[in-house]
Write a structure and sequence with these properties.
This protein has 205 residues and is an all-alpha fold. Helix content is 78%, strand content 0%. The longest helix is centred in the first third of the chain and has 29 residues. It is globular and about 55 Å long.
Length: 205
């Protein structure tokens, strides 16, 4: 049952973290709006495949960092700082254009999805910081290889489901992806709330 739990943790926060409009999900919307559903689906699978090793690398970096005695002694405050920083980073206005609907994609959906995902490695620091936070709060234990891969597999399926939703509801979601401020800041608010919780726990603990 715990394998299912860690899978769901990875799934939920991968889904939430993939919500803000960016290169990958705007590309999916573009393909879906052009009625290239098969190409968009291949694109989504490619993104999910790359999410797996990137999340795994993030967790491995987290293991490496948390073996330091200094980190272990200050694990709670480091987790609070990391989550607060990730929240602020997600809320900070981006100069990158997120409309992106003028970009054209050819029929190589899978290869294009692989390339864009490889060039967008923000999943590594995200999962490194987020996994450290979860461990600091005692909410997750990845002490076995099976638990680790259940967790990482959940991150991969989370982004895949989010992109699947975008594909099948593109016409309804496109206006929100282009203009909704709330859609862009939801993940940042979630991360910032977790950071505040960690600070409260640190000072009251």
């Amino acid at each position: 049952m715990y394998h299912i739990y860690v899978f769901l943790v990875g799934f939920v926060f991968s889904f939430i973290g993939s919500i803000p409009p960016g290169t990958l999900n705007v590309s999916i919307l573009q393909l879906a709006l052009e009625k290239k559903v098969a190409i968009a689906t291949r694109f989504a699978f490619a993104v999910a495949i790359i999410e797996y090793p990137y999340a795994w690398i993030g967790v491995q970096f987290q293991y490496w960092l948390t073996t330091s005695p200094v980190v272990l002694e200050n694990f709670q405050i480091i987790a609070a700082v990391v989550m607060t920083a990730l929240g602020i980073f997600n809320l900070w206005p981006s100069k990158e254009s997120t409309s992106g609907f003028a970009k054209k994609f050819n029929d190589s959906g899978f290869r294009r999805g692989l390339l864009l995902s490889l060039l967008n490695p923000m999943a590594i620091p995200y999962w490194m910081g987020f996994t450290a936070y979860l461990k600091a709060q005692g909410w997750i234990n990845l002490g076995t290889v099976g638990l680790l891969h259940s967790y990482v597999f959940g991150t991969s399926i989370g982004v895949l489901v989010l992109l699947w939703v975008l594909i099948h509801y593109a016409k309804r979601l496109a206006p929100y992806a282009q203009g909704s401020r709330w859609l862009k800041i939801i993940p940042g608010l979630v991360l910032l709330s977790l950071g505040i919780y960690a600070w409260i726990k640190y000072f009251l603990g």
